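This week, study the protein below.
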Amino acid sequence: MNSLKKKSYFATMKLLRVLLVFFLFACVQSEPAPDLFSLPVSYKVGKKPDEIKARDMNHDGFPDIIVSNSASHTLSYFEGLGDGTFKTPLTMNTGREPLAMETGDFNGDNVEDIAISNYGDGDISIILGQKDGLFKQKSNIKVGRLPIAIAVGDFNNDDKLDLAVTLRFNKLVILLGVGDGNFKTGEIYKASGTPAYMAVGNFNNDNNLDIAIAFNAPQVNFIGIFHGNGDGTFKAPIKIKGGKQSAFITQYDINGDGKNDLLTSSNMNDAIQIFINNGKSSFSSVEDAAAEKGPEYIVPGEFTGDNIPDLAVTNRGDASISILQGRGDGSFIFPHFNYPVGAKPRAMVGEDFNDDGLTDLALLIYDKQILQIILRKNNSPS
């Protein structure tokens, strides 16, 4: 073997050894996921269940569940019994394709009401709760084509709840509450980049509510924050780099510094992004917190028994939910814990459904039209 061939041979063998080590490292199986959850209990819902909320709608001290069924044009209301089980659901008619919804006391009677965005009709339905646990439709409010998401907050500091609605064609609409269940249209803002989900909070410590929006257009790599003026109007949005093509956004104090941070997911890019709140109007984008295939809904909470915030995430692409164990500084331990569920898990919320002090999960399985209640185990290990 001549010198040139010899060098080529050894170079090739070295490369093969490196590739072999990389392959073996990549194929190492993570430790089995800890036994954190009981087997899920399933309830039937309508066609194409898109959104879920867990709220105490009848003031009995136990969280209830509301599900929007976009293809059935209905809501399913499950009254919680406080032991992790629910009554047979009440079905309420809505407009066409109810996608998003929020709850709040819109008419000042101390009973929770429901606001639903009807994607197919371009309006918002207001359904008023009553003290007998039933509901009645109040009104429909036209907002424009394809309302995709809805959020609630007192944006003008008059102690009456208002609504924010994103339209798929680049708009943010503010509806100001009158206090009797009616709303009047406020300002309409341009929100370029295909606005999707929203989170409402005071992100710059001025005692006025702000709106953070995830944008879903293919080339968009930012989230937007509309800072509130306290009178129902908002400043031009501040763009924060990161969260490419995100469909979901939520807020939580993930690093324990007393300020709510922002978390986004992109099911198109298999990514979860953390934005650490530095106070005032400043956020630091943390590197992608490794995700599975098609992550969507994020539920922050304490799941592993160490009193440090974790994340529960639905993974549409591989029929699972993940628990990302937090370190307490805004970063997460890898590998995380994966739990198989039904195909195409969609929306998810966390609440204590059986009154044991632990955060449980309620999950929608889109194709099978199922609501799954997944209870935490009392003997969850640290």
Residues 3-26 form the longest helix (24 residues). Residues 3-7, 9-30 have pLDDT under 50 and may be disordered. The radius of gyration is 23 Å. The chain is about 5% helix and 45% strand.
